[in-house]
Amino acid sequence: xxxxxxxxxxxxxxxxxxxxxxxxxxxxxxxxxxxxxxxxxxxxxxxxxxxxxxxxxxxxxxxxxxxxxxxxxxxxxxxxxxxxxxxxxxxxxxxxxxxxxxxxxxxxxxxxxxxxxxxxxxxxxxxxxxxxxxxxxxxxxxxxxxxxxxxxxxxxxxxxxxxxxxxxxxxxxxxxxxxxxxxxxxxxxxxxxxxxxxxxxxxxxxxxxxxxxxxxxxxxxxxxxxxxxxxxxxxxxxxxxxxxxxxxxxxxxxxxxxxxxxxxxxxxxxxxxxxxxxxxxxxxxxxxxxxxxxxxxxxxxxxxxxxxxxxxxxxxxxxxxxxxxxxxxxxxxxxxxxxxxxxxxxxxxxxxxxxxxxxxxxxxxxxxxxxxxxxxxxxxxxxxxxxxxxxxxxxxxxxxxxxxxxxxxxxxxxxxxxxxxxxxxxxxxxxxxxxxxxxxxxxxxxxxxxxxxxxxxxxxxxxxxxxxxxxxxxxxxxxxxxxxxxxxxxxxxxxxxxxxxxxxxxxxxxxxxxxxxxx
Length: 519
Hints:
about 35% helix; 4 domains; four-stranded mixed sheet; 19 helices; alpha+beta; seven-stranded mixed sheet; FAD/NAD(P)-binding domain
């Protein structure tokens, strides 16, 4: 159930390592899940921005068997060697020579836009940062950081406490609080510290400062970036035509090997027998309304846990379990694609023409948008017309919000106004717009999440059910972690292992990955 990175990885692993034939049902009309690429009039849109980066050699090798590294060119001045394969840090000016189905190596650059100033993200302690902050602000940040290190808040239960203990209250208020609350729609005091521990892990101000200092003299140009916090990596892999190219390639391979993929197929009734066995799943063809039932030996689920449990039939599910499942919350995602006219050569019409960022965090309180992507900088092949700039203005919403339910025209006009108000574009330069919505994009750590262990034990009680991926485990995983949960699930079937602890441990602890998965 689900044809995102986790579901497609599970299917491919089953086909190549077992005699089990996978059948995938996916509610969307294309594969990839949140990692799909949307084609709008030839312009490719990455939903949420997807760096292909992993410290796992196993995951990187898996990607490269489908989309190999592009061969080096004498016109590129940085070569990278990875397991006897040589790649280059690609220069868009030389990109026309690249193969159609290749993986590019792209420089990573993301910054914070705050009060009309750009700040490196993660923050670099340099003259520009200090100048933008001003002496008074810098002094307050330093004092509050020292206070936080000497007198940390204990016990560390909330995300606010997590940030304050690592960065100090002043830096938290300046660069973390408002953006995080835009993303989740609630105060950081209402979000458990688990989210920070999972997403930021071991990053702290000293690591950021040390990285800033050392990178001024030498950059880590290995693909594995070993010894570098994930938040500090300097380059990443990226499919030539966006993340969806990877998953469309995998899907084609799956069908060639005998797997079956049903699109526009929404899971509805999940039949349970003998208390702890899934027997079948019924799905509705969204286009025709017809219902089909699939019997199977094993079930992999990357659909939202709320939908999985409330669709179970044939077993009296404890009302507490149902209440907890219904109490899980999600954050929905909306992106506005704006196509901007470039100015004549040598005369820029808007600020985006000079920017090399992959994405920019929008920190100001008065801006509803949380982030903006520049698709030209992910890959030059994301844009149909090279005389245009393609950007994606990202909003984090609930589907009950007035903004979510406004017309596409009104949503697009707000995105244009906000980008113009912060000084990044001129409204007259916008050639075209499109609005893309994704429901349940981010599993939230609010609602009934504090009691998630009860739901986890309930799911583990089903012998032939494997929850995988971001929504399948209600965990804010990256794509490589979602893939790893699928790989381990298949290994458990092969080894006839009943205990699913190793699946839930993925992305729970950094040391676990490094010790057990060749990271």
